[in-house]
Design a protein that fits this description.
The protein has 157 residues and is α+β, with helices and mostly antiparallel strands. The protein is built from 3 helices and 5 strands. Strand 1 (2-12) and strand 2 (15-21) form a beta hairpin. The longest helix is centred in the middle third of the chain and has 29 residues, at 71-99.
């Protein structure tokens, strides 16, 4: 299980919206001075993320909590996010080029655009299915206590 601490900023039925801070592993890396990720992180700064998680710990707004997601679930989600649109794009290019005859390049371009669009639509539906499945959602594992150091931000849910 991959865990991250955060701050509960809103409640939504059985779910809690938890603000976490995006972090990289740059602090522990020896090449951080010449790395592009380190440079982007310093230019863009750390930005908070809002994660919707099942509130099994019954946390309240303002509580610091520990949020977890299964490692296998995260890997499956990463593979679906990167692999599905790429494979759909390539399949569309190949199909368009093969069926395009004399206009194979133009047909390949259109096929690639169609394949990418279909891949992204599939990914959207796949994400919606995963969001409805309690087994694949992030979970508030436990409360770490209240926090006065962080202001509560309402998301307008």
């Amino acid at each position: 299980m991959i865990e991250e601490s955060g701050l509960v900023i809103a409640l939504d039925g059985p779910h809690a919206w938890v603000r976490t801070e995006r972090r990289t592993a740059c602090g522990a890396c020896a090449a951080r001075g010449g790395c592009g990720v380190s440079l982007l992180d310093s230019l863009l700064g750390r930005r908070p993320n809002a994660v919707r998680a099942l509130n099994r710990a019954e946390a309240e707004v303002g509580d610091r909590v520990l949020v977890g997601i299964g490692g296998d679930d995260l890997l499956a989600l990463a593979l679906a996010t990167y692999l599905a649109p790429t494979l759909a794009l390539l399949a569309g290019i190949l199909a368009g080029s093969a069926l395009g005859g004399d206009q194979g390049d133009a047909a390949g371009l259109l096929g690639g655009a169609l394949g990418l669009t279909l891949g992204l639509l599939w990914l959207r539906a796949h994400g919606a299915r995963r969001a409805r499945n309690p087994e694949t959602q992030p979970v508030v594992l436990r409360r770490l206590g209240p926090s006065a150091a962080y202001p509560v931000v309402e998301l307008g849910l």
